[in-house]
Design a protein that fits this description.
single chain, Nuclear Transport Factor 2, Chain: A, 6 strands
Amino acid sequence: MRRVLFSIAVLIVLWFGGRAIVRSFASDATKIRWAVESMIDGFDRTRTDDVLEGLAPEFLDETYGADRAMVRSACAYLFFQAKDPTTKGFLYSAECEPSGIVVTEDRGGGPSRAEAQLDTRFFEKKGDERKLVWRIDVRAQFVERDGEWRILRSETRTVEGERLR
C-alpha cells in the first residue's frame, strides 16, 4: 500500500513539475491563448471566477463601458437564468479564436503589453444541437503581471446576431 501511495505522490509531483516547466518555456502568444481558453472554459462551465481571472482589476470594455463588476453581474445573471428547458443545463456555450497577437516589451521595466483580435462565437444549446446566436470581434489589449496575461481594455463589435439575454 505504501508503494502505491508513494508512486501516486511521485506522479503528482512529476505532473505539476512538468506543467511548470512547459509554462515557463511557452511563448507569450501561447500564454495569451491559454488565458483566453481558460476564460472560455470558465464560461462554458458557468465559473464566474474563471472568466474574471482573465481580466485585469482595472478592465474596461470601451464599447459597452463594462468593467469587471459588470462582467461579474452579467455572468451571474446568465449562469443562473439561461437554462436549456430540456436538459436544465446552461443554455450557452462559447468558442474563441485569438489571432494577430502582437507583444510589446516595456524597456523601462514596466509590464509587457499585447494586442490581439478575438473572434468569439456564442451558441445556444438545445439538447445536442447548437445554434450560433452572437458572433463578436473583440480587439483586446493585454497586460502581463506576475507572469499572467490579463485583458486590460477591449473594444467589441457585433458581427452577427444579438447580445446574450
